[in-house]
Structures are given as C-alpha cells and as structure tokens.
Amino acid sequence: MATATSLQWDNSYARLPEEFFERIAPTALPDPHLVAFSPDAASLLELSEDPIGLLPFLSGNQLFPGTDPIAAVYAGHQFGVWVPRLGDGRAILLGEVVTSQGDRWDIQIKGGGQTRYSRFGDGRAVLRSTIREFLCSEAMTGLGIPTTRALSIVGSPEPVERETLETAATLIRLAPTHVRFGTFQFFASRRRHDLVGTLADHIIGHHFPTWVDAENRYADLLIEASLRTAHLMADWMTVGFAHGVMNTDNMSILGLTLDYGPYGFLDNYDPQHICNHSDDGGRYAFANQPGVGLWNVTRLAESLLGVLSEETAVAAIDRYRPAFEERFLELMGRKLGLTTREDGDGALVARLLALLQEHRVDYTRFFRALSTVKQSSAKAAASVRRFFEEAPTFDDWLSAYGARLQRDGVGDVERRELMNRVNPAYVLRNWLAERAIRSAVDDGDFAEIERLRSLLSDPWTADPANIAYTDSPPEWGRHLIVSCSS
Ligand code: AMP
Ligand code: MG
After folding, report:
1. DSSP 48-97
2. From the CA of 483, which ligand is nearest?
3. Could you tell me if 86 and 75 are in contact, meaning their C-beta atoms sit under 8 angstroms apart?
4. What are the domain boundaries of the chain?
5. Atom 11 of ligand 1 has which residue's CA nearest to it?
C-alpha cells in the first residue's frame, strides 16, 4: 500500500518527443476542501492514505513527488467541424502511477488551470461538472462499461464564470491512457506520420505488448480500436446512455467512455433523445451514437493512412458494423433473459423497442420488471403490463416473448437472477445527479454524492431502503437542461 509520497511514478508520455505536449504544473487552488473520494479508485492505485492527508496533492497545490506534469496536444472533429489544434486545456497529466502488480494508471488533474491549449478558457472546472464526471465514472464502472475513473473532487471558493457565477473544483481522473482519436489526428493532419507511428508504438508498447515486433501492429491497433468502439456503443445503447459530445477528441483509443459532459441516461425510451442542450441539430442524439462511432473510427483510420495501407484501413472499418450488431443482439438477448439465440430474436428486440418508444416507457424500470414474467403465463404479468395503457400490441409481444422463453427453457427463478445481473435497478438519472449537485452547490452538503457513489457501485442489488432511487424523474427533473458548459 502506498501514500502520496510513496507512489511509484513513471512518466513515459512525458518522454515522448516535445511535439506531444507542453510541460506545465497545475495552478494553485485557493482554500481547498474535500468534496468526494472513491475508495474503489484509490485501491486501484494501492493508495491507502486518508483523503484529508491527500488534499494538497488532489487540489494540485502540491506535486506528488516523482511526477513530470504535462498538457497533451490533440486535434479533433467537433460536431463534424475540423479543429486543427485542441489539447488539454484544463487537464494536466501528472504522470503514470505504476502499482506493485505492474498496472499503470495515467493520473490527470482536471480543472488544474490554464495551459497552452486553453484557447479562451480559464482552465478551470466547476463543482457541478466535476460531480457529474465523478458520479458517472463510478456508475459506468458499476455497470461494467469501459470508462475512465475518478478518484476525488476537491472544491474551492474560487469563483468561476459560466452562464452564472460558480465555484472551481478539481477532479483527479485515472485511465490506462487518455490518448484520443484526436491525438492521432493532430500529427496526421500535420503530415507527421513519423509521430503517428511513435504514438501508435507508445500505445502498443503499453497496452498490447505482444504486438510490439509484429509487422502489422498498426493494422491490429486500428482493428482493436474499431472493435472496442463498436462494443462500447453497444454497451451504451443497451443501458440507455447518451454521451452527448462524441467529438473525435472525446473518443478513447482504448474504447473507454471518456470526457463526461452533458451525458444522460434515458428515462423514457426515446431514440431521438438529445441530452446535450447545445446540440441543436441532434448530431449526437441517442440513436445516432453507433453511426457516429463508425464515423469517428473512419477519421481515426484516415489518420493512420501514413503508416498503413488504405486496403487495411478499410478492412478494419468494415469490422465495426458486424461487431456492433453482434454485441448489441447479445446484450439485448441477455436483457431479455435469453441464454440461446434464434433467428427471430432481432425482430423480437426491435418490436419491443418500438413499443417502449411509442408508449414512452421508462427503459430501466421496464427491464427490471420484465424479470418477474413467468414463462407459463406471460400474458398475466401485471407488473410489466402496467407500463402500457390499452396496448394489445404489447400483449402480442408478451405472448411471443413467453413462447420464446419456453423454447429457451431456463426456469423462472434462474432467469430472474440472470436478468437482474444485467438489468440495473439504478442508473445515474439526471434528476439524481442534479439533486446531489444542488445540495453540494447550494448547501455545501456532500452526503448525497457519497450515497449515489456507493449505490451506483452496485447497481444490480435493489435495496428496499433505496427504492426511491429507482424512480422515474419527478416533474421538476423531467426536462433538466444540460449543456457543454462545464
Ligand atoms: P470538451 O468539449 O470538454 O471535450 O472540450 C473541448 C476542448 O476545450 C478541450 O481541448 C478542452 O481542454 C477545452 N476546454 C473546455 N473547457 C475549458 C476551460 N474551462 N478552460 C480551458 N479549456 C477548456
Ligand atoms: Mg474533451
């Protein structure tokens, strides 16, 4: 176990050529106080020190000994528009912690002040947005969906101007790497294919070490990114998660959910749902995500054209759609409690989703309730029937489902258990996040953040004492406006 001063650091990204970053230390954060801490994330680092003792480090006011902080450069397509230079404008990579097991974690401080890449920004993050990122990182982990992690939030009275005056906070983010599609795009767009190769080799060396000497390693990396992105989209689509800002600079080369901004979990099932208030055209609407993932993978492939052939790139891109379809069906089948596959399953899923949309049914609550259906008497299942008023079409679906369950052959009790391990009782609905934010921001009360963190770390076990956390939003929480401002 380690303390702040005994963590082992190896700053390999900071040893890359100087074109990759700016060396810069975080800006001090006045009067810091601890807002939130994830013991689960701390254990990944084997960090045993009391969070209060860590405060000077988590705030960015003191550097962990052994770090070599930098801000990384990248580029990206933002809402489809090419931006030739972006970069860590308010995140600073402190370095990489290496654990006793040899695991490596990139440690970033988000909101740590301005860098060369801040453009017109102040380099800060507001308390509201750090709470959203902290909770969702840990919620996605609980759901088993690949994501960056969050260790801590530190608050400060420092005022920060957004639409209204808010206060500053820093978040410590952990990831195997923070490299994005946009990092590759930056060097490719400057025709620095040598540096595209350097970056690819850096990722391969750390994350796919068995490929290091392989001639086709860049093709393998692209295929891997294509497949992982396809799988991530299937994970998001089946749990009802909308990212909100799927710009290529927010796409992780390792297929992690990255950069939590105006994301949202669906309440009622609505494929057209746009969670980002700034997304006027609905480019990143819920149902568009798999297609956008492919568009982004195609941009990544283009950025690798200096180090691999067009034919290879096309082959990697072509892997995306079947990988998505396969995983989507696999996950939806599991949500329905099916342990076998039949040709008609895709149609069964599609018909159900159309019904959920038509009747504006709460997505998470519906699947949780569906586990109570009995094979023999699907028609009589009042607990799911009540989501649909006067819906003979749903009754038709339910009889088809009942027949399908009989052919699948798993007993009701066993199936219910299986379903409750893939259909969460709790997701981080906007209204739940908003309630935790309001009590933190307005009353300085952080208890609700910890309650949500703990609850969402195991979203499968419905605790009767916390049944209200499974509710659809109350009236005030139905149309919360979440924008890019953070
Ligand atoms: P995002 O939309 O959060 O992915 O950010 C897009 C770009 O804007 C990234 O390069 C960020 O580093 C930068 N950025 C966002 N907010 C700020 C801020 N408050 N100060 C400086 N840069 C920022
Ligand atoms: Mg970003």
Report:
1. -S-HHHHHHHHTTSSPPTT---EEE---EEETTEEES----SSEEEEEEE
2. 1
3. yes
4. 13-181, 186-329, 338-419, 430-477
5. 89
Q: Which atom of ligand 1 is nearest to the CA of 114?
A: 21
Q: Is the CB of 259 under 6 A from ligand 1?
A: yes
List, in sequence order, every residue forming a beta bridge with 171; answer none if it has no partner: 110, 153
Per residue in 215-260, pLDDT (tens digit) is: 999 999 999 999 999 999 999 999 999 999 999 999 999 999 999 9
Q: Which atom of ligand 1 is nearest to the CA of 88?
A: 12
pLDDT at 378: 57
Q: What is the C-alpha to C-alpha distance for residues 42 and 36, in angstroms, rounded to an integer?
A: 12
What is the percent of the chain where pLDDT is above 90?
A: 94
> Which residues have a catalytic role annotated?
249
Helix (H, G, I), strand (E, B) or coil at 371: coil
Query: Token digits for 51?
Result: 């969070």
What does pTM read for this prediction?
0.97
DSSP 314-353: HHHHHTHHHHHHHHHHHHHHHHTT--S--TTHHHHHHHHH
Which stretches of 182-262 are assigned E, i.e. beta strand? 241-242
With a 6 Å cutoff on the Cβ, whether 278 touches ligand 1 is: no
Residue 90: what residue type?
R
Q: Is the CB of 44 under 6 A from ligand 1?
A: no
Specify the 3-state DSSP secondary structure of 295: helix
Which DSSP string do the residues of 135-176 spell out, in sequence order? HHHHHHHHHT--B-EEEEEEEEEEEEESSSEEEEEEEEEEES
**Contact at 8 Å (CB) between 66 and 98?**
no
Residue nearest atom 2 in ligand 1 by C-alpha distance: 484
Distance from Cα 90 to the centre of ligand 1, integer Å: 6
* CA 23 to ligand 1 centroid distance, Å: 18
Contact 147, 139 (CB under 8 A): no
